[in-house]
Amino acid sequence: MIGQRSRTSTAGGAHFAFTDRWGGVSAVPYEELNLGGAVGDDPEAVRTNRELAAKSLGLDAARVVWMDQVHGAEVAVVDEPWGDRPVPEADAVVTTRRGLALAVLTADCTPVLLADPVAGVVAAAHAGRPGMVAGVVPAAVRAMTGLGAEPGRIVARTGPAVCGRCYEVPEKMRAEVAAVEPAAHSETSWGTPAVDVTAGVHAQLERLGVRDREQSPVCTLESGDHFSYRRDRTTGRLAGYVWLD
Questions:
Q1: pLDDT by residue (tens digit) across 187-227?
Q2: For 186, left (φ over 0), alpha (ψ -120 to 50), or beta?
């Protein structure tokens, strides 16, 4: 079972889920439910964790599509798992295949799950600071609309991420980000420059016409129940999942 602090929701046949760090088999410093395969954890533990997470969500682990995330804006449109094929570099995946789950890995970045249940299109996107600035979320929405989705019908859910009161950055970096996305301009709780990636993502979605949006209240850096790269450096990865019945 994934941890009790994991969050799941449904909307018109679309399902959204975000994991926490509990309920898996990984050892320190990846304890417990590390779902990231490129962070130094035992590959067998990661495989078991992915199976446990999928089973707890009523999914087949073999029918979950993962990405090779690189903090860019590339979008992959898929209709089946990668199987033996190389996993492509992408920070968003889109599908019209019902029952095929899309997954995004994070440990401070903003996981973005999108669905138009009427058109039968879903997407998962990885929006870190570089990806948000590059426009990965608008790119995912464009890919969805190209497959028949309408922004006004899209349901958006963003998961646990470092908040704008904790994501400290140099003043120059904040200015560069805010020049692209003003809503991301923030300040830490101790009065230094910061970036709010999730606020930037929601502003982008608002401009695109996506109105049905919800944001997780969890700040990964503040929460001991979630992985945080900024807090711990060597750590595991959370996952967000989206799929259609």
A1: 999 999 999 999 999 999 999 999 999 999 999 999 999 99
A2: beta
